[in-house]
Amino acid sequence: MKTLLLITIMVFLMVEVSAQTSLTYLNNALVAGDSYTFREIQCPDPGNAGSKQIWDFSDIQYTGKTQVSNLQSATAQKLSGAGDFNLLINENGYDYFMKTYLGGMDECGYENTSLKLTMAYSDPVVKMRYPFSFGDQFSDHFIGIAWYSETSKIDFFGDHLVNADAYGTLILPDGIIENTLRVKSVKKGLQVNMCGMTDINIVKYSWYAAGYRYPVLSLTIAQTQASGATPQITKTAFTNTRQYQTKSTPVAGTNVSVKLADPAKEIAKPEVKVSLSPNPFTDKLTYNYYLSEPMAVSVELFSITGKNNGWLVKNQTQRIGLHTGELDAVIYGLSQGVHFLRFAFDKQVVILKIVKI
Predict the structure, then answer these.
(1) What angle do CA 127, 51, 105 make, to 5 degrees?
(2) How far apart, in whole angstroms, are the C-alpha atoms of residue 221 and residue 283?
(3) Which residues pair with 143 in a beta bridge?
(4) For residues 154 and 121, what is the distance between their CA atoms, to the nearest angstrom?
(5) Does the pLDDT at position 259 exceed 50?
């Protein structure tokens, strides 16, 4: 009996572990030739660490700003003192010189020509190790020298700590993503130049999900403090859910590419607005939306854990005009608390939080 119980527990644990997202070189390494767009959002609180977390970011606001990243082979470009690198990331005016390999990824240096700034690491920053799963962590010491306008030298050294500190369900305005792995990295360093010293502390949270090569959400909190000065804090956050799943094997330094969605080439559809009343509600909730053209519509009910609790409308082609529907709490067995309605209008997705009281 004890043996049977032990086997049952082990099988349960194996199923739970296998459901978690694990970062691997095959599925998550940078791929030369990729180009994708991050959409900036107002920076939310990163939430808690641990297992079975629920990050409810359904109410985040988009700022309208975007940031484009381009990945290319760096074999033809050089950065003095940066060592061996094989891939270049062009992002927000910076060129980051990276080394990708089966066991992980290193940052070897970066430059910004408009700012006349270069950084070369004599001891690179280890950014990732593969495979990487919930509970995994590592730390790495780095040393580098930066030059400003080729005349001002800045010594930079410190430590980089990376921890897969949480997993759970990520709720965004355009979807609910289960089995999401959060990776937290902390880069602590000291810059030393002829004018003094500056403490650098950069905390970054990245959420990864199966089927997405790159993070679907990233959040960065950077703090700098020069000697005797007030700390300066900058917060940024971006989403990148417009990725196609890839089955290609990335090869460091080659032009293996992943086809990503290009929003500029998509045919713009009229945006559909959804209204709810009352919300919070006790027994019944009414929803309304107006279609300016015929289209396929689905309305799906989710629990706060991301579980499907039923379909109110499933892939139904609806005519032009105003449409009204009703959610009956008794029919769907809703308990008190937070739930979600997911509206799909062709490719447009709207997720709204509802509260049963």
Answers:
(1) 10
(2) 42
(3) 123, 157
(4) 12
(5) no
- pLDDT tens-digit series, residues 212-245: 999 999 999 999 998 888 999 999 999 998 775 5
Q: How many whole angstroms separate alpha carbon 172 and alpha carbon 94?
A: 29
Quick one: average pLDDT of 105-133?
Answer: 94
Q: How far is residue 356's CA from residue 349's CA, in Å, rounded to a whole number?
A: 22
Q: Which two tokens stand for residue 68?
A: 């484009």
Q: What is the CA radius of gyration of the chain?
A: 24
In whole angstroms, how far apart are CA 148 and each of 154, 158, 267? 8, 20, 44
Alpha-carbon distance of 189 to 21, in angstroms, equals 30
Burial of 103 (0-12, 13-18, 19+ CB in 10 A): exposed
Strand partners, 217: 207, 239
- Tell me the residue length of the chain: 357
What would the two tokens of residue 327 be? Answer: 């959610």
Residue 10 φ then ψ, to 5°: -65, -40
Place of tokens 């061996």: 84
Closest C-alpha among 213, 242, 207 to residue 55? 207
Question: What are the start-end ranges of the H helices in the chain?
Answer: 2-19, 25-28
Peptide bond into 173 cis (omega under 30): no
Q: Give pLDDT, residue 211.
A: 85
- Position 319 pLDDT exceeds 70: yes
How many helices and strands in the chain, by DSSP H and E?
2, 20
CA gap 33, 88 in Å, rounded: 10
pLDDT for 30-82, tens place per residue?
Answer: 988 888 889 999 999 999 999 989 999 988 889 989 988 989 887 667 777 77
